[in-house]
Amino acid sequence: MKGFGSALRSGLQHLGIVAIAMGSLPGVAIAHGAHIQARTATAMEIQATYDSGEPLAEATVQVFAPDDPQTPVYTGLTDADGKFVFVPTAPGNWEVSVRQAGHGDIAVVPVESEGAIASTFTNDAGLSLLQRGIVAGAVTWGCVGTALFFGRRGKQ
Amino acid sequence: MHIPDGILPAPVCVAGYAIAGGMTWVALKQIKKTSDSQVEVPKAALMAAAFFVGSSLSLPVPPVSVHLVLNGLLGIVLGWYAWPAILIGLLLQAILLGHGGVTTLGVDAVMMGIPALLAGQLFQLRHYLGKSLPPKVSLGLFSFVAGAFGVGLSALVFFALVIFAIPSTLEQSTEKSFLTALMLGHIPLIFLEGVFAVLLCFFLLRVKPELLER
User: Fold this and answer.
1) What InterPro entries does the entry give (chain B) (predicted)?
2) Quick check: A143 and B171 CB within 8 A?
3) Considering CB atoms only, which of B38, B161, B169 is closest to A75?
4) How many Å apart are CA B198 and CA A23, to the nearest integer?
């Protein structure tokens, strides 16, 4: 029994040495490990559409932080609905540029300290079809009026 | 076809304004030279309305959607007056409809105005090159070529400007593949505008042929 006890002790000692040696090895030995950390952050979703309301799908998005308008912090493509999500990490005016084949727009989104969009921000969604029709009608009538005015002057 | 704000670098926008300014001066000088410059104003106003409304009508050419430009037609009917008509039309489109942009107004004017003026000159060539043809054939041929040429050249300038101005931070291949699709989408439009010009010229020939003579 005594012999078995000492054999067990020496075995455990060896195991301990191996474990200490493995733990003290540089990072290479444990590089297979991966970690995922989770925390809550306020994300912002943008949606890009054409005038017709059709989504600007697979368009290139560039997001610029308030302190650097030259280098984009986030880049990517919009999804099939023209949507793109990013996390503004600092308060200030974030610039979002969406473009595709020479079309696109730039939006400046004011972000407050908690990561929320400033309450003063208005999302300009452009004109509705009815508004566009009224504008087109007004301009056409303006041009027809001009034509009639100069036409009459010409006849006199 | 309109280039909105934020697509082109600032020097290109400034150059666009400089060229557009010079062209406006030349066009107004040429208009002043005519004996009664106000006679053409009603025609120019009506064509400016057509140009303004034309860009609001989108034509679905899968996988993209294009819209009428009508700049070749304006060049045919208006000659030098096409320039101020296009400039005013573009300004109203940018301010009221959000088509194009205010910073890119100069570039857009050059892109659509100069092809319009060239199309007008091309149409006038029928007096020399189309002499041997029957008058109706000559009118049809030259109006088609001029109408198609106006929008075709504008489309080429558009693609050249956009390709030249792709920032290095963008994924070039994605942008280029979408540009290719848009370029192919413009081919039916070129034919359509050519046909449109022929129809209008034949209509004017029947109802008011003096409108075609300058």
Assistant:
1) CbiM/NikMN (IPR002751)
2) no
3) B169
4) 85
Chain A, nearest residue to B100 by Cα: A103
Domain that holds residue B178: 10-211
Does residue B4 lie within any of the structural domains?
no
Does residue B2 lie within any of the structural domains?
Answer: no
Spatial distance between the Cα atoms of A88 and A42, rounded to a whole number of angstroms = 8
Specify which residues A106 forms β-bridges with: A97
- Residues of chain A with C-beta less than 8 angstroms from the C-beta of B175: 60, 99-101
Q: How far apart are CA B157 and CA B8, in angstroms?
A: 13
CATH code for the part of the protein at A44-136: 2.60.40.10
Cβ-defined contact of B45 to A132 (cutoff 8 Å): no
Sign of the dihedral defined by the CA atoms of residues A23, A25, A31, A32, in that order = negative
Q: How far apart are the first and last CA of chain B?
A: 29
The yes/no answer to whether this complex scores an ipTM above 0.85 is no
Contacts of B168 in chain A (CB under 8 A): none
Taking the C-alpha atoms of residue B113 and residue B106, their distance in angstroms, rounded to an integer, is 10
214 residues of chain B, pLDDT tens digit each: 889 888 888 999 999 999 999 999 999 999 998 878 788 899 999 999 999 988 877 777 776 778 889 999 999 999 999 999 999 999 999 988 888 889 999 999 999 999 999 999 999 999 888 788 888 899 999 999 999 999 999 999 999 998 887 777 777 788 888 888 888 889 999 999 999 999 999 999 999 888 887 6
Domain ranges, ordered by start, for chain A: 44-136
Q: How many domains does chain B have?
A: 1
Q: Note whether residue B66 is domain-resident.
A: yes
- What SS3 state is found at B141? helix
Domain assignment present for B159: yes
Cα A19 to Cα A17: distance, rounded to the nearest angstrom: 5
